[in-house]
Design goal:
Its main location: cytoplasm. This protein folds into 2 domains: about 160 residues, Ribosomal Protein S5, domain 2; about 130 residues, GHMP kinase, C-terminal domain (Alpha-Beta Plaits, 2-Layer Sandwich). The chain is about 40% helix and about 25% strand. A hairpin with a 4-residue loop joins β4 and β5. α2 packs across α4 and α6 runs antiparallel to α7. The protein is globular, with a radius of gyration of 19 Å. About 55% of the residues are buried. The structure holds (R)-mevalonate. (R)-mevalonate binds next to α4 and α5. The site of (R)-mevalonate has 15 residues, from α4 and α5.
Length: about 350
Amino acid sequence: MRSRTISSSNPRSTGPGAPRATGTGHTRAKAILVGEHAVVYGEPAIALPLASLPMRAVARREEGPLTLESVLYSGALSDAPEQLAAPVAAVEATLDHLGLPHRDVVLSTESTIPAARGLGSSAATAGALALALADLAGRTLTAQEHFDLVQVGERVAHGNPSGLDARTTASTEPVWFQAGEIRPLDLALRAHLVVADTGVHGRTRVAVADVRSFRDRHPARGTELIAELGAITRDVVDDLALDRPAELGARMTRAHGALAELGVSSPELDRLVGAALAAGALGAKLTGGGQGGCMLALAADAASAGTIAAALRRAGAARTWLHRTDARRPAAPSAQVPLA
Ligand code: MEV
Protein backbone atom coordinates (compact mmCIF):
# COMPACT_ATOMS: atom_id res chain seq x y z
CA MET A 1 0.00 0.00 0.00
CA ARG A 2 1.11 3.53 -0.68
CA SER A 3 2.40 5.48 2.26
CA ARG A 4 -0.08 8.02 3.53
CA THR A 5 -0.39 10.57 6.27
CA ILE A 6 -3.42 12.14 7.83
CA SER A 7 -3.19 15.82 8.47
CA SER A 8 -5.67 17.84 10.42
CA SER A 9 -7.83 20.27 8.55
CA ASN A 10 -6.55 23.35 10.27
CA PRO A 11 -5.25 25.67 7.56
CA ARG A 12 -3.40 27.71 10.22
CA SER A 13 -1.03 24.80 10.77
CA THR A 14 2.14 25.84 12.54
CA GLY A 15 3.86 22.57 11.73
CA PRO A 16 4.74 19.51 13.75
CA GLY A 17 5.69 20.02 17.36
CA ALA A 18 3.93 23.34 17.83
CA PRO A 19 1.03 22.85 20.25
CA ARG A 20 -1.93 25.15 19.72
CA ALA A 21 -4.94 26.37 21.69
CA THR A 22 -7.45 24.42 19.62
CA GLY A 23 -7.23 21.50 17.25
CA THR A 24 -9.77 20.29 14.70
CA GLY A 25 -10.40 17.00 12.96
CA HIS A 26 -12.75 16.01 10.16
CA THR A 27 -14.09 12.64 9.06
CA ARG A 28 -17.35 11.60 7.46
CA ALA A 29 -19.98 8.84 7.39
CA LYS A 30 -19.52 5.81 5.19
CA ALA A 31 -21.80 3.49 3.26
CA ILE A 32 -20.70 -0.03 2.38
CA LEU A 33 -21.65 -0.63 -1.23
CA VAL A 34 -20.96 -4.33 -1.05
CA GLY A 35 -19.01 -6.84 1.03
CA GLU A 36 -20.09 -6.20 4.62
CA HIS A 37 -19.83 -9.22 6.92
CA ALA A 38 -17.90 -11.23 4.30
CA VAL A 39 -15.07 -8.72 4.89
CA VAL A 40 -14.74 -10.04 8.45
CA TYR A 41 -13.70 -13.39 6.86
CA GLY A 42 -11.04 -11.85 4.61
CA GLU A 43 -13.21 -11.19 1.55
CA PRO A 44 -13.00 -7.73 -0.04
CA ALA A 45 -15.53 -4.92 0.42
CA ILE A 46 -16.21 -1.63 -1.36
CA ALA A 47 -17.25 1.40 0.65
CA LEU A 48 -17.98 5.05 -0.05
CA PRO A 49 -17.32 8.02 2.21
CA LEU A 50 -20.46 10.20 2.43
CA ALA A 51 -19.32 13.83 2.20
CA SER A 52 -22.89 14.99 2.87
CA LEU A 53 -22.67 13.55 6.39
CA PRO A 54 -19.51 15.13 7.85
CA MET A 55 -18.15 14.83 11.38
CA ARG A 56 -16.15 17.69 12.88
CA ALA A 57 -14.35 17.48 16.21
CA VAL A 58 -12.64 20.28 18.12
CA ALA A 59 -10.19 19.94 21.01
CA ARG A 60 -9.42 23.04 23.08
CA ARG A 61 -7.23 23.61 26.09
CA GLU A 62 -9.13 24.39 29.28
CA GLU A 63 -8.02 23.54 32.78
CA GLY A 64 -10.02 20.80 34.44
CA PRO A 65 -11.11 17.25 33.78
CA LEU A 66 -11.07 15.82 30.27
CA THR A 67 -14.52 16.83 29.00
CA LEU A 68 -16.75 15.99 26.06
CA GLU A 69 -19.48 18.21 24.61
CA SER A 70 -21.70 16.34 22.14
CA VAL A 71 -25.34 15.84 21.21
CA LEU A 72 -25.43 12.51 23.07
CA TYR A 73 -23.63 13.62 26.24
CA SER A 74 -21.85 16.59 27.78
CA GLY A 75 -19.64 16.20 30.82
CA ALA A 76 -16.50 14.52 32.13
CA LEU A 77 -15.27 11.87 29.70
CA SER A 78 -14.82 9.46 32.61
CA ASP A 79 -18.61 9.57 33.21
CA ALA A 80 -19.66 9.23 29.55
CA PRO A 81 -22.44 6.69 28.89
CA GLU A 82 -21.78 3.18 27.55
CA GLN A 83 -22.99 4.31 24.11
CA LEU A 84 -19.82 6.44 23.86
CA ALA A 85 -17.44 3.73 25.09
CA ALA A 86 -15.82 3.37 21.65
CA PRO A 87 -14.87 7.04 21.10
CA VAL A 88 -13.83 7.29 24.77
CA ALA A 89 -11.44 4.35 24.33
CA ALA A 90 -10.03 5.93 21.15
CA VAL A 91 -9.55 9.30 22.89
CA GLU A 92 -7.70 7.68 25.78
CA ALA A 93 -5.48 5.73 23.40
CA THR A 94 -4.78 8.90 21.40
CA LEU A 95 -3.81 10.89 24.50
CA ASP A 96 -1.43 8.09 25.51
CA HIS A 97 -0.03 7.91 21.98
CA LEU A 98 0.60 11.68 21.95
CA GLY A 99 1.95 11.69 25.51
CA LEU A 100 -0.74 14.12 26.66
CA PRO A 101 -2.27 14.06 30.16
CA HIS A 102 -5.89 12.87 30.49
CA ARG A 103 -7.06 16.35 31.57
CA ASP A 104 -7.14 20.05 30.64
CA VAL A 105 -8.84 19.40 27.29
CA VAL A 106 -12.44 20.00 26.21
CA LEU A 107 -13.53 17.93 23.23
CA SER A 108 -16.60 18.67 21.16
CA THR A 109 -18.19 17.01 18.14
CA GLU A 110 -20.62 18.32 15.56
CA SER A 111 -22.30 15.93 13.18
CA THR A 112 -25.55 14.86 11.60
CA ILE A 113 -24.46 11.23 11.22
CA PRO A 114 -27.18 9.15 12.87
CA ALA A 115 -25.76 6.90 15.60
CA ALA A 116 -25.96 3.10 15.30
CA ARG A 117 -27.39 3.08 11.76
CA GLY A 118 -24.57 1.33 9.90
CA LEU A 119 -23.12 4.61 8.61
CA GLY A 120 -19.92 4.45 10.64
CA SER A 121 -20.76 7.02 13.32
CA SER A 122 -18.55 5.41 15.97
CA ALA A 123 -15.47 5.25 13.70
CA ALA A 124 -16.14 8.75 12.36
CA THR A 125 -16.42 10.15 15.90
CA ALA A 126 -13.30 8.38 17.15
CA GLY A 127 -11.39 9.34 14.03
CA ALA A 128 -12.29 13.03 14.16
CA LEU A 129 -11.46 13.21 17.87
CA ALA A 130 -8.06 11.56 17.31
CA LEU A 131 -7.28 14.08 14.56
CA ALA A 132 -8.40 17.03 16.73
CA LEU A 133 -6.15 15.89 19.58
CA ALA A 134 -3.19 15.41 17.25
CA ASP A 135 -3.82 18.89 15.81
CA LEU A 136 -3.97 20.32 19.33
CA ALA A 137 -0.57 18.76 20.00
CA GLY A 138 0.78 20.13 16.69
CA ARG A 139 1.26 16.58 15.41
CA THR A 140 0.41 14.73 12.22
CA LEU A 141 -0.76 11.14 12.42
CA THR A 142 0.24 8.66 9.77
CA ALA A 143 -2.68 6.81 8.21
CA GLN A 144 -1.60 3.68 10.07
CA GLU A 145 -1.36 5.48 13.44
CA HIS A 146 -4.82 6.96 12.90
CA PHE A 147 -6.24 3.58 11.86
CA ASP A 148 -4.76 1.86 14.91
CA LEU A 149 -6.21 4.49 17.27
CA VAL A 150 -9.70 4.29 15.72
CA GLN A 151 -9.52 0.50 15.84
CA VAL A 152 -9.02 0.68 19.64
CA GLY A 153 -12.51 2.19 19.78
CA GLU A 154 -13.94 -0.08 17.11
CA ARG A 155 -12.86 -3.15 19.08
CA VAL A 156 -14.90 -1.83 21.99
CA ALA A 157 -17.89 -1.23 19.68
CA HIS A 158 -17.80 -4.37 17.51
CA GLY A 159 -15.54 -6.93 19.17
CA ASN A 160 -13.69 -8.01 16.01
CA PRO A 161 -13.87 -5.14 13.51
CA SER A 162 -12.45 -5.65 10.03
CA GLY A 163 -11.22 -2.04 9.94
CA LEU A 164 -13.44 -1.11 7.01
CA ASP A 165 -15.25 1.63 8.95
CA ALA A 166 -12.01 3.06 10.34
CA ARG A 167 -10.46 3.25 6.87
CA THR A 168 -13.50 4.56 4.96
CA THR A 169 -14.53 7.29 7.42
CA ALA A 170 -10.97 8.65 7.16
CA SER A 171 -10.96 8.53 3.36
CA THR A 172 -12.35 11.08 0.93
CA GLU A 173 -12.45 8.57 -1.95
CA PRO A 174 -14.36 5.33 -2.46
CA VAL A 175 -12.22 2.42 -1.33
CA TRP A 176 -11.59 -1.23 -2.03
CA PHE A 177 -10.80 -2.80 1.34
CA GLN A 178 -9.33 -6.17 2.15
CA ALA A 179 -7.41 -7.47 5.16
CA GLY A 180 -6.98 -4.05 6.73
CA GLU A 181 -5.66 -2.31 3.62
CA ILE A 182 -7.36 -0.01 1.14
CA ARG A 183 -6.71 0.85 -2.45
CA PRO A 184 -8.38 3.38 -4.72
CA LEU A 185 -11.06 2.34 -7.18
CA ASP A 186 -11.45 3.16 -10.81
CA LEU A 187 -14.91 4.71 -10.69
CA ALA A 188 -16.60 5.70 -13.94
CA LEU A 189 -20.13 4.88 -12.77
CA ARG A 190 -22.55 7.76 -13.03
CA ALA A 191 -25.53 6.79 -10.92
CA HIS A 192 -27.31 7.90 -7.78
CA LEU A 193 -27.53 6.12 -4.47
CA VAL A 194 -30.41 6.65 -2.10
CA VAL A 195 -29.48 5.91 1.51
CA ALA A 196 -32.50 5.26 3.74
CA ASP A 197 -32.64 4.90 7.51
CA THR A 198 -35.08 2.30 8.87
CA GLY A 199 -35.20 4.35 12.07
CA VAL A 200 -34.24 1.18 13.96
CA HIS A 201 -30.84 0.89 15.67
CA GLY A 202 -28.52 -1.48 13.84
CA ARG A 203 -26.88 -4.20 15.92
CA THR A 204 -23.47 -4.74 14.37
CA ARG A 205 -21.99 -6.71 17.27
CA VAL A 206 -24.99 -9.07 17.41
CA ALA A 207 -25.17 -9.36 13.62
CA VAL A 208 -21.46 -10.25 13.35
CA ALA A 209 -21.98 -12.91 16.06
CA ASP A 210 -25.07 -14.23 14.25
CA VAL A 211 -23.13 -14.69 11.01
CA ARG A 212 -20.49 -16.63 12.94
CA SER A 213 -23.19 -18.78 14.49
CA PHE A 214 -24.77 -19.39 11.04
CA ARG A 215 -21.37 -20.57 9.76
CA ASP A 216 -20.93 -22.85 12.77
CA ARG A 217 -24.39 -24.40 12.30
CA HIS A 218 -24.25 -24.59 8.48
CA PRO A 219 -20.55 -24.64 7.56
CA ALA A 220 -20.97 -25.47 3.88
CA ARG A 221 -23.75 -22.96 3.19
CA GLY A 222 -22.13 -20.29 5.37
CA THR A 223 -18.82 -20.62 3.52
CA GLU A 224 -20.67 -20.57 0.18
CA LEU A 225 -22.59 -17.38 1.01
CA ILE A 226 -19.47 -15.57 2.19
CA ALA A 227 -17.59 -16.63 -0.95
CA GLU A 228 -20.57 -15.47 -3.04
CA LEU A 229 -20.43 -12.03 -1.38
CA GLY A 230 -16.69 -11.89 -2.14
CA ALA A 231 -17.31 -12.83 -5.80
CA ILE A 232 -20.05 -10.18 -6.07
CA THR A 233 -17.64 -7.55 -4.72
CA ARG A 234 -14.97 -8.50 -7.27
CA ASP A 235 -17.53 -8.19 -10.10
CA VAL A 236 -18.72 -4.83 -8.75
CA VAL A 237 -15.21 -3.46 -9.37
CA ASP A 238 -15.82 -3.89 -13.11
CA ASP A 239 -19.35 -2.45 -12.88
CA LEU A 240 -17.89 0.70 -11.30
CA ALA A 241 -15.03 0.99 -13.77
CA LEU A 242 -17.15 0.27 -16.86
CA ASP A 243 -20.22 2.32 -15.81
CA ARG A 244 -22.63 -0.64 -15.67
CA PRO A 245 -25.42 0.52 -13.34
CA ALA A 246 -27.91 -2.22 -14.29
CA GLU A 247 -25.36 -4.97 -13.53
CA LEU A 248 -24.33 -3.28 -10.31
CA GLY A 249 -27.96 -2.99 -9.20
CA ALA A 250 -28.61 -6.68 -9.85
CA ARG A 251 -25.51 -7.60 -7.83
CA MET A 252 -26.58 -5.35 -4.93
CA THR A 253 -29.94 -7.13 -4.76
CA ARG A 254 -28.20 -10.52 -4.87
CA ALA A 255 -25.92 -9.40 -2.04
CA HIS A 256 -28.97 -8.45 0.01
CA GLY A 257 -30.37 -11.96 -0.51
CA ALA A 258 -27.12 -13.55 0.69
CA LEU A 259 -26.95 -11.24 3.72
CA ALA A 260 -30.61 -11.97 4.56
CA GLU A 261 -29.91 -15.71 4.42
CA LEU A 262 -26.96 -15.17 6.77
CA GLY A 263 -29.45 -13.60 9.19
CA VAL A 264 -28.47 -9.93 9.12
CA SER A 265 -31.48 -8.34 7.49
CA SER A 266 -34.67 -7.35 9.34
CA PRO A 267 -38.35 -6.92 8.40
CA GLU A 268 -37.80 -3.15 8.16
CA LEU A 269 -34.78 -3.54 5.85
CA ASP A 270 -36.59 -6.11 3.67
CA ARG A 271 -39.60 -3.78 3.42
CA LEU A 272 -37.45 -0.84 2.29
CA VAL A 273 -35.51 -3.00 -0.20
CA GLY A 274 -38.85 -4.19 -1.66
CA ALA A 275 -40.23 -0.63 -1.80
CA ALA A 276 -37.11 0.65 -3.57
CA LEU A 277 -37.24 -2.10 -6.21
CA ALA A 278 -40.97 -1.52 -6.75
CA ALA A 279 -40.23 2.20 -7.24
CA GLY A 280 -37.75 1.48 -10.04
CA ALA A 281 -34.41 1.03 -8.24
CA LEU A 282 -31.80 -0.85 -10.26
CA GLY A 283 -30.93 -2.71 -7.09
CA ALA A 284 -31.14 -2.42 -3.32
CA LYS A 285 -29.54 -3.89 -0.22
CA LEU A 286 -28.89 -3.31 3.44
CA THR A 287 -25.66 -1.48 4.27
CA GLY A 288 -23.38 -1.95 7.27
CA GLY A 289 -23.96 -4.30 10.16
CA GLY A 290 -27.69 -4.75 9.50
CA GLN A 291 -30.51 -6.04 11.73
CA GLY A 292 -31.72 -2.43 11.55
CA GLY A 293 -29.83 0.65 10.42
CA CYS A 294 -29.72 1.73 6.79
CA MET A 295 -30.20 0.41 3.27
CA LEU A 296 -29.01 1.58 -0.17
CA ALA A 297 -30.93 1.79 -3.43
CA LEU A 298 -29.29 2.42 -6.80
CA ALA A 299 -31.03 4.82 -9.18
CA ALA A 300 -30.18 5.46 -12.82
CA ASP A 301 -30.68 9.23 -12.61
CA ALA A 302 -31.65 12.07 -10.29
CA ALA A 303 -35.36 11.92 -11.14
CA SER A 304 -35.52 8.21 -10.39
CA ALA A 305 -33.58 8.77 -7.15
CA GLY A 306 -36.20 11.32 -6.06
CA THR A 307 -39.04 8.91 -6.84
CA ILE A 308 -37.31 6.09 -4.94
CA ALA A 309 -36.56 8.32 -1.93
CA ALA A 310 -40.23 9.37 -1.76
CA ALA A 311 -41.33 5.72 -1.99
CA LEU A 312 -38.90 4.78 0.79
CA ARG A 313 -40.26 7.47 3.08
CA ARG A 314 -43.82 6.28 2.36
CA ALA A 315 -42.67 2.76 3.24
CA GLY A 316 -41.46 3.96 6.65
CA ALA A 317 -37.91 5.28 6.17
CA ALA A 318 -37.12 7.76 8.93
CA ARG A 319 -34.72 9.69 6.66
CA THR A 320 -33.19 9.48 3.22
CA TRP A 321 -30.01 10.94 1.72
CA LEU A 322 -28.91 11.16 -1.90
CA HIS A 323 -25.37 10.42 -3.00
CA ARG A 324 -23.92 10.65 -6.50
CA THR A 325 -21.50 7.84 -7.24
CA ASP A 326 -19.29 10.24 -9.17
CA ALA A 327 -19.20 12.74 -6.28
CA ARG A 328 -15.68 13.82 -5.47
CA ARG A 329 -14.09 15.12 -2.31
CA PRO A 330 -15.39 18.51 -1.15
CA ALA A 331 -13.39 21.57 -2.14
CA ALA A 332 -13.20 22.79 1.48
CA PRO A 333 -10.04 21.77 3.33
CA SER A 334 -10.60 18.74 5.50
CA ALA A 335 -8.66 16.02 7.20
CA GLN A 336 -7.71 13.60 4.52
CA VAL A 337 -6.18 10.29 3.83
CA PRO A 338 -4.81 10.97 0.38
CA LEU A 339 -4.86 7.82 -1.67
CA ALA A 340 -2.12 8.98 -3.96
C1 MEV B 1 -19.84 -2.83 9.83
O1 MEV B 1 -19.95 -1.50 9.34
C2 MEV B 1 -19.29 -3.73 8.76
C3 MEV B 1 -19.18 -5.21 9.14
O2 MEV B 1 -18.65 -5.89 8.00
C4 MEV B 1 -18.29 -5.43 10.35
C5 MEV B 1 -16.83 -5.12 10.06
O3 MEV B 1 -16.44 -4.99 8.91
O4 MEV B 1 -16.09 -5.07 11.05
C6 MEV B 1 -20.53 -5.82 9.44
